[in-house]
Write a structure and sequence with these properties.
- The complex is a heterodimer of chains A (about 220) and B (about 90).
- Chain A is an alpha/beta fold.
- Helix content of chain A is about 20%, strand content about 30%.
- Chain A is globular, with a radius of gyration of 18 Å.
- Chain B is globular.
- The N terminus of chain B is likely disordered.
- The N and C termini of chain B lie far apart (about 25 Å).
- A 5-stranded antiparallel sheet of chain B has the order 1-4-5-6-7, with no helix packed on it.
- Classes of the chains: A alpha/beta (about 220), B mainly beta (about 90).
- Chains A and B meet through strand 5, helix 5 and strand 10 of A and strand 1 and helix 1 of B.
């Protein structure tokens, strides 16, 4: 996992949750395109940050990780998508559920929330395999420590460090019921691999969250 | 949310939003759609997308009807939509 900052000559502010398409074209005209969620908030003018997992047999992520150097130019299209988005005007309370790299578009929402006022009560339930797999761990800890209504709940499904007090299992209905923020039906954004997204969405409906308050985004093995 | 069987290759139509926007000239993830198979009406962003093929297949999450197929060919972009009852692009 690595984050990259792209400076955009024709920058327009995005809505947190949106993505950009990146396109690489070889000298012979062969072209490949992938979608990457924006990790930064729209408050960062003129640039966006994307967080990209290196996929061994991928076509774009190895280029970004191994070949690209600062100053390289990359063709992009965006911001794209108006369905899986949250802006401060939509209010809360917010429940964000992330699995693995599904945290990326939710991080844009969390960063946007931190830059606005008033801030809706927000819970992040974040499932990772091991402590090393937690992306943005330090920043999430700092943001939660501000005590402004953001709570971060981690579950580690494969291995936990000594003295771990968080969850240590896959997301289930009991965990969702505990993570559900108090105060009205939450606005829910779920992003991660399909089984996690389906499981969390169906579980939330079972515990009484209205389906129309739930938005989902499935992450494929190569990003979006 | 609809109960349905999916695998790890299943994505949302959000993942093909860029291609849809290029074809239709608008953000289609918030456009309303109706499935030609079961009549489910919902935003395009709730539909399922399959991209592990030369083209893109968009299916209904309730009944799995193929609602849209798109493929870029040397002669142009081919769109087949016989499983789609309608699409309403929000103004």
């Amino acid at each position: 996992m690595r984050s990259f900052t792209l400076q955009l000559p024709n920058w327009t502010p995005h809505r947190p949750g949106q993505h950009y398409d990146l396109r690489l074209t070889a000298a012979d005209g062969y072209s490949v395109q992938r979608s990457y969620s924006i990790a930064s908030g729209p408050e960062r003018e003129g640039e966006i940050e994307i967080t990209v997992e290196r996929v061994a047999d991928g076509e774009i992520s190895p280029f970004l990780h191994d070949v690209a150097v600062i100053g390289d130019r990359i063709e992009v299209r965006g911001p794209i998508g108006g369905y899986f988005v949250w802006q401060a005007a939509l209010g809360g309370p917010l429940l964000l559920v992330a699995g693995g790299s599904g945290i990326v578009p939710l991080m844009a929402m969390i960063r946007h929330r931190a830059a606005t006022s008033p801030r809706p009560a927000t819970r992040l339930l974040y499932s990772s395999r091991t402590p090393e797999d937690i992306i943005y761990a330090d920043e999430l800890r700092e943001l939660a420590a501000r005590g402004d209504g953001l709570e971060v709940l981690h579950t580690l499904t494969r291995s936990q460090p000594a003295g771990w007090t968080g969850y240590a299992r896959r997301i289930d209905d009991a965990m969702l019921a505990e993570a559900r923020p108090v105060g009205g039906a939450p606005l829910v954004y779920i992003c991660g691999p399909t089984p996690l997204v389906e499981g969390a969405a169906n579980g939330l409906v079972r515990i009484g969250v209205p389906a129309q308050r739930i938005r989902t985004e499935r992450f494929g093995p190569s990003g979006k | 949310m609809d109960e349905t069987t999916q695998d790890e290759r299943t994505l949302d139509a959000n993942a093909v939003a860029g291609m849809l926007e290029e074809v239709f000239g608008a953000d289609m993830t918030v456009a309303d759609s109706k499935c030609g198979g079961c009549g489910r009406e919902a935003e395009v962003g709730t539909l399922l997308a399959y991209t592990n093929a030369p083209g893109v297949v968009v299916r209904c999450p309730t009944c799995s009807t193929v609602m849209l197929r798109m493929v870029e060919t040397p002669r142009g972009t081919l769109i087949e939509a016989k499983g789609l009852a309608y699409i309403r692009i929000t103004r």
